[in-house]
Design a protein that fits this description.
Elements lengths: L12 H13 L2 E2 L6 E2 L9 H12 L4 H10 L2 H4 L5 H14 L10
Antiparallel strand pairs: 1-2
Helix pairs in contact: 1-2, 1-3
Bound molecules: zinc ion.
């Protein structure tokens, strides 16, 4: 098994966006043998999911909060009161990643 992806020494907003995407896209999927990553079908949590969690932890998100975020998807994150800037960046992310859907018209 490969080692973990290192968390950047200086976590930027871009890292946080990628981390959110990682935990949302690399969410667990129930299988008879146990949960697998929805994106790459390796045992959950996969390397990217673990990386995302560790990055988000540096920003104060607890494990339960990340689990909830992953379950609810990107909207939980981009619609928080921090505002439009974040939502716009989320859309940009969605355009690049396609796997993450951001509800644009919801206010
Ligand atoms: Zn994965």
């Amino acid at each position: 098994m490969l080692g973990d992806i290192p968390v950047p020494r200086c976590v930027t907003a871009e890292h946080v966006r990628l981390a959110v995407k990682a935990v949302v896209v690399h969410a667990p999927e129930a299988w008879p043998a146990g949960p697998l990553c929805r994106a790459d079908h390796t045992p959950y949590p996969c390397r990217l999911h673990r990386w995302g969690r560790r990055v988000l932890r540096t920003r104060g998100l607890t494990d339960p909060a990340v689990t909830e975020l992953a379950a609810r998807g990107q909207s939980a994150w981009v619609n928080e009161p921090a505002g439009r800037g974040r939502a716009a960046r989320g859309n940009e992310l969605a355009a690049r990643g396609r796997a993450v859907r951001v509800p644009e018209r919801r206010r």
